[in-house]
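Readers of this paper often ask what the protein records in our data store actually look like. The remainder of this section carries one protein's record, kept here as part of the documentation.

:::
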Amino acid sequence: MMQLDAVKVNLPLKKKFAVSQGEVTVKTNLLTILNNRYSGEASTSIYYGPSIEEMAADLRKGIALLERQTAVTLGTLHDIDRMDIHPAARSALMAAVLNYLSGESRRYPWELVDLGTPIGIKSSMTVGIDATDRMVEAIRSSEYPIIKVKMGHEQDVMILDALEAGLGKEVRVDANGAWSCAKAEEMIYHLSRKGVRVIEQPTDADYVKEWPHLKGKADVELIMDEGLNTLDDYMRCRASIDGINIKMDKCGGILHGVALARQAQADRKKVMLGCMVESSVGIAQSVYMSALADYFDLDGPLLLEDDIARGISYHRESINVDREIIGGPKLRRDVLQKYLSE
């Protein structure tokens, strides 16, 4: 008999994390734990939601579905994929079931969904919105060779001076849709002259059809994140974009994530795998499908005071997968107990 629980965890961050739509110092997420071992994580957006209460209600619907199953199989993943619940809840349920199938079969999770071995994953590290002087110092002093700078605030132009060619880092920029079309056109021009080649979500998704014009002849790739959750979203926007950022909490888990990545590859678009502010439990599905990606923005666990699981680790920008990852990341009970929320 299966036992599936949903547990709330409050995850303190090393420092305040801010984007153009909000900020957070403690992130509250939900864990799905199957048979006291196999886990998934649902992470809400600090701006877009949903609330923890709404997410918990959706997880209860998923738990009820799984409790009615006579057996958990790969078909169960497709049953979850069809559920009319928030995609973050679907993703957390799918992760727990995929990890369960991995543990019970003694096969790696990515093998179960016909994906290649995760190797050579090099993630960016985010510099969040802050006072200009602190952002400039964070950019210049970062030990990470790939950094993603959050923009979309009044001081954006003042950050440009920190992005010199001699910085010795690959710099990517994410505006989280905060620029107007006019501001985006100006910033894309200046950023391209500073050597920035990857820019996420320069405007709100409503203006994505303007992106080819905003880019002009600048040698940059415009990556869509906000507003791109499903394959249908992608098909509507693909003519205007250079690539997509796939997040499990937005697309609903690895099945839809793989479908998105493969369609983008067929269209010769770039694929980035991104994350929310979450632990290594949350990024695990993205790690499993890393063979399909060009860029990685999976620094969520690095933003936390403590990761709550073992099995996926970081050496600066490199993400390493433990050979014992069968069954997925293993929750660290010593750390988890500190952050459990009533």
About this structure: The domain at 121-331 is CATH 3.20.20.120 (TIM Barrel). The longest strand covers residues 4-19. The chain has 13 helices and 16 strands.
